[in-house]
TrEMBL record:
Keywords, in A-Z order: ATP-binding, Magnesium, Nucleotide-binding
Catalytic reaction annotation: ATP + H2O = ADP + phosphate + H(+)
InterPro entries from the UniProt entry: AAA+_ATPase, AAA_N_dom, At3g28540-like_C, ATPase_AAA_core, ATPase_AAA_CS, Mitochondrial_chaperone_BCS1, P-loop_NTPase
Record organism: Urochloa decumbens
Cofactor: Mg(2+)
Protein name: AAA+ ATPase domain-containing protein
Family: Belongs to the AAA ATPase family. BCS1 subfamily.
UniProt keyword Iron-sulfur present: no
A matching Pfam family: AAA
């Protein structure tokens, strides 16, 4: 193409450029007009919060979110194995190690320290430097595998959606093969959460686990005024306890509420204790309920026989020497104080002998009811915390009114005759059954006659064949019903 041809065609190229420019200018003007219109509409209709959010989003997209986001500040708490002086143990370190042992995942961590927990029959449990995790236990005497972090390793834990990093550290000189400290790292914005919720959650979880893993003991007092203990392995639990279901649930709820109310008791100025009076005919399960409470709370039992206590001072030494998290049990309290006034043995020996039940032991002449009441809610009641006090009696009407006063026995539990719910529990315990053709007739008979759970248990124990055992129980109930009808009608 020669020069003349290019020159001839240049006007067409110029006109096209002019047209393109005009179109771009028109489009820009239209977009600008729409933008102005949209901005005006947004200003009139959208609230300030939405406009701010829109501006932030636009700025984020234009400038790049990564450049705008400030780096998060990290914070690290160091939990040393020993106190500042280097001698005393740091209980928080032990709690943290115990807690982390339950969070170790051997499938996700490349190196895990594995050991075996020693068996134990006492309360002085050595949880080791890293705590423990409940593995498979053998023989009912303890044992189980312990998993923990290796020194220098790290692991993550999530609490309320926040991720925390734990690192096991060694001594500065590197000589100690066990962890000398733990480091807890997290985003600095969660500092208050760590102090107010995460650390208290760890200590509470560990305390609950230790309590439930505790080997129980039962203590009795000797004539010298001291406690002697032995292992306690009563199998009763609330699942196997034969009693009214609603009553059972109310007791469990009351115990749960008691365990959680430490700060509440402090705030209202009362000793952290709870009193239960169990009353009802013999054989209705009062002792089994005591065992179920001990197994549920994992508190040791202190069975006090007042006939072996010589004086109020000896009684005071016994009661104040009980540790926290214990259960004081005084059975047949009506026999213990039926012949003693609040101030002492003021009645004559003849009067005491006439009024004392025939099965009651001779009264301890140096003990007064006031001495016991001082421990229940008097000056001695603050000598310990988290205690349960249980009195049992077959005859509530024989008790001194001072024992029944509100604030001493917080919950009165009537242990009555075998009801339908109690029988179903016994049938499930003995025969693993929830239904049988004889159940409807047995249910009707139980509503018509008074029979104790102990009597029903005795009948069910007579045969391992459910048909034979239930038939025998039904015949026993029918005989009691006939005897009741004869007694009420006065005819043979």
């Amino acid at each position: 193409m020669d020069l003349s041809t290019v020159v001839a065609s240049s006007p067409s190229y110029g006109s096209k450029a002019v047209d393109a420019y005009k179109k771009a200018a028109a489009t820009a003007a239209t977009v600008t007009a729409y933008a102005v219109l949209a901005r005006g509409v947004a200003r009139e209709l959208l609230p300030d919060e939405l406009r701010d959010a829109a501006r932030w989003a636009a700025s984020f997209l234009l400038r790049g979110g990564a450049r705008m986001r400030a780096p998060r500040r990290r914070r690290t708490f160091v939990i040393r194995r020993y106190d500042g002086d280097g001698y005393g143990d740091n209980s928080l370190f032990e709690d943290a190690c115990t807690y982390l042992a339950t969070r170790v995942d051997p499938h996700s961590m490349s190196r895990v320290c594995l050991s075996r927990r020693r068996s134990r029959d006492d309360d002085d449990v050595d949880y080791g430097a890293f705590g423990y995790c409940d593995g498979d236990k053998e023989g009912g005497g303890g044992g189980g595998h312990v998993m923990s972090m290796e020194v220098g390793a790290s692991m993550d834990d999530v609490f309320e959606g926040v991720e925390f990093t734990w690192t096991s550290m060694t001594n500065c000189d590197g000589h100690d093969r066990q962890a000398a400290s733990l480091e807890l790292s997290f985003d600095a914005e969660h500092t208050d959460m760590v102090l107010r919720r995460y650390v208290p959650f760890i200590t509470a979880s560990v305390e609950d686990a230790r309590r439930r893993d505790r080997a129980l003991k039962i203590f009795s007092c000797d004539n010298g005024g001291s406690w002697r203990g032995s292992s306690y392995h009563h199998p009763a639990t609330f699942d196997t306890l034969a009693m009214d279901l609603a009553l059972k649930q109310s007791i469990v709820a009351d115990l749960d509420r008691f365990l959680k109310r430490k700060e509440y008791y402090r705030r209202i100025g009362k000793a952290w204790k709870r009193g239960y009076l169990l009353y009802g005919p013999p054989g209705t399960g009062k002792s089994s309920l005591v065992a179920a409470i001990a197994n549920y709370l994992r508190f040791n039992l202190y069975d006090l026989d007042l006939s072996k206590v010589e004086s109020n001072s000896t009684l005071q030494c016994l009661l104040t020497s009980m540790p926290d998290k214990s259960i004081l049990v005084i059975e047949d309290i009506d026999c213990c104080f039926s012949a003693i006034t609040r101030s002492g043995p003021e009645k004559s020996a003849e009067q005491n002998a006439d009024e004392r039940p025939p099965d009651a032991p001779p009264p301890p002449m140096g003990i007064t009811l006031s001495g016991l009441l001082n421990f229940v809610d008097g000056l001695w009641s603050t000598s310990g915390e988290q205690r349960i006090i249980i009195f049992t009696t077959n005859y509530k009407d024989r008790l001194d009114a001072a024992l029944l006063r509100p604030g001493r026995m917080d919950m009165h539990v009537y242990m009555g005759y075998c009801c339908w719910e109690a029988f179903k529990t016994l049938a499930r315990n003995y025969f693993l059954t929830d239904d049988h053709p004889l159940f409807p007739e047995i249910r009707e008979l139980l509503s018509e006659v008074d029979v104790t759970p102990a009597t029903v248990s005795e009948m069910l124990l007579r045969s391992e064949d459910v048909d034979v055992a239930l038939q025998g129980l039904m015949e026993c109930l029918q005989e009691k019903k006939q005897g009741k009808e004869i007694g009420e009608g006065g005819k043979a």
